């Protein structure tokens, strides 16, 4: 027998739960980004009865087509195993680490999660190789940056709502992504929530690229013990456990690396917050960067990243895939510029607004690796 569903009217009266503002006042630090201080959206919308502005931002990103396509976009490695990170799993790991840091510092986790889930939404196929190829193709037409393209996607290209193009995100979230386009750190500094996402992104790729590179056999953990940061983490692991299998040792060292880097960022932030005693988000704006590694760990991180650049990102197997992807994108750029009728109507409609080269660049940037290969085979193979 079907059970009758009561026709609930929201909000229930009297309201049985904390309001968003009550909840934030109870949890957040005074210098956090409060929903009540949001400057709203460029197109005015009525407030949602039980979701705050940044929760709605987060939901809009998760439900966007560009977000789903991250599942078939390269992070660093492509088509080599079923283990390595994709752009989507990288994004989820950034969100996870960013929320951990944000929660410890009593910041607005909903905003942090929204920005973390959005931060790489503008990545073209084939990772940074694809971005470099598109930047070259568009060098006389304004260039290409995945951070800037994320803003184009959420402001113009996604069509999911009646009445306006884009996702109509809050001004704070758009401003947060805009600081990723121009990373000059002079005051006014971005809110701590924005700084957290940047720090978490860096911790995330250092850790997962180490994990993926060893698992894929491009380097060994033994090779990497020459790097002080990896050596420290391996020693910490060995102090607690012995005779781990190589596979488990790799994973445990990577967990230790994340914990070490997050702990260092938190210690550094707590020290700075204790010294400057910010009482509001305006105090944060005047202060400069707070969420960053300590100087010592920043140096250790640089050594790890230089190693990854030399031994992993420039590994012949990776370079081969990278070059093939770039060649494909360059050919497709020229081909689609010469034959705009190959593009779907929505992309042809962009030509009037942004010109043919950029409309083609946007179309290519939106492709997954798989769709890009498919379109390449259709027109060029
Ligand atoms: Mg990222």
Task: Describe the fold and architecture.
The protein has 381 residues and is mostly helical. The termini are far apart. The longest helix has 31 residues, at 246-276. The protein is globular. The chain is built from 19 helices and no strands. The chain has a single domain (20-379), classed as Orthogonal Bundle (Hypothetical protein af1432), CATH 1.10.3210.10. The protein has helices at residues 20-27, 53-62, 65-69, 87-104, 109-118, 127-137, 146-157, 171-181, 192-215, 221-224, 228-240, 246-276, 281-287, 295-313, 316-338, 345-348, 351-354, 356-366, 369-379. Magnesium ion (MG) binds at residues 90, 94, 119-120, 201.
Main features:
single chain, 381 residues, mainly alpha, Hypothetical protein af1432, 0% strand, globular, binds magnesium ion
Please summarize what this structure is.
With 381 residues, this protein is an all-alpha fold. Helix content is 62%, strand content 0%. It has a single domain, classed as Hypothetical protein af1432 (Orthogonal Bundle).
Describe the secondary-structure layout.
Layout: H1 20-27, H2 53-62, H3 65-69, H4 87-104, H5 109-118, H6 127-137, H7 146-157, H8 171-181, H9 192-215, H10 221-224, H11 228-240, H12 246-276, H13 281-287, H14 295-313, H15 316-338, H16 345-348, H17 351-354, H18 356-366, H19 369-379
Helix pairs in contact: 2-5, 4-5, 4-9, 4-12, 5-9, 6-15, 6-18, 7-8, 9-12, 9-14, 11-12, 15-18, 15-19
This protein binds magnesium ion.
